[in-house]
Amino acid sequence: MQERINEYGPEREILNDDNSRRVTAEQRLTQLGIKLPAPPEPFGIYAEAVQTGNMLFLTGMLPTAGREAKFVGRIGAELDVKTGHMAAYLAAVNALAVARQHLGIAGQSYANRSARRVGGHFWRCPGAAENR
Description:
Blueprint lengths: L1 E5 L2 E5 L11 H7 L17 E4 L2 E4 L5 E2 L2 E2 L11 H23 L29
Antiparallel strand pairs: 1-2, 3-4, 5-6
């Protein structure tokens, strides 16, 4: 990965294995062995993604498949840390699936698209032993 600095901070360019050319986001997901699910169905009447200019804003993503919650609870109470990691992974790939569906750029170069902010929130009990 090569790194440049822009007005938002470090920017990494994802290159192929021999650093000769950019890799698309789809190619990078394949390299990492990540298969995106079908985008989850909303649980209500709201937009899962809203684009303003070159910024895409997503609603909070839950660890769901279709309209079914796969994980429910707090890390350290109903969920152990390993299960919390699985829930976070599912929520993250759901977010990527919604972004891909909304942007409609599967297989194209993401050269002019980059994440400006990615955030996640997890409900954890105050007494949970592991905070990673």
